[in-house]
Amino acid sequence: MKLGIISAIKAQESRIDWGGSPVEAYARFLQNSGGSFSYTGYEAAHGELPTAADAHDGYIITGSPNGAYDKDPWIAALQQFIREGYAAQRKFVGICFGHQILAHSLGGHVEKSEKGWGLGLRKHALHKVKPWMAGAAGQMSLYFAHQDQVKRLPANAEPLGGSPFCPVGMYTIEDQVMGIQGHPEFTESHMRDVLKQRRRQGYESDAAAAEATLQKGTPDGQIVGRWIVNFLNFSNDKQTQKGSLRRIRNGFLPANLSGLAK
Q1: Which residues contact 257 (CB under 8 A, 6 or more apart)?
Q2: pTM over 0.90
């Protein structure tokens, strides 16, 4: 599979130490999750997108400090690209902002939550388990850093998990679109970088409360990473789907493609 990693982060403005560019960090995350994709990175926040929606088989859209409803020209361009890619039956996975802009672009609605910020290690209940969600339990824990939330899903979307604080924590649109509000790609160091920034902005109590959650367990980022890889490899074709399911159930993640990250 040829994968496009669409970065919605202006790297020079990011307060997170990604150990390289955000594109490289997401590539490492997918590789460490068992993915063997060829990939190309695109700096969407700087106006760079693929020249055609069918340039890749699938796309992953990163988090961002921006909102899916912002009026920046690059956000409008990304929304249009999502609609074109969806019509062309490309696969999409969105994380945090990516989760939100996929829903917002395809008929849903995103806005700032009156509940404030979701920060730190948080649990979401899983309402439904899909065939590609190998090893799923009744809940998942991830690092979170968001104020915006998906308030209304597209009509054909299916919610898979959430919490009282964030009801739409994970969803799919058939086997084509997957959105995750949490950050499976975050390490604890990434989360602490976010909390340092909150402190610099004067939100000490928020940061302290979120920091306390980091001692209450470990995130399921690696498990969710495997779900993402399985989802991207999961085929709508019935015959191929049977083979994909068999490999997933046997704990095998497809690795029949060229290497992902350097």
Answers
A1: 1, 36, 37, 38
A2: no
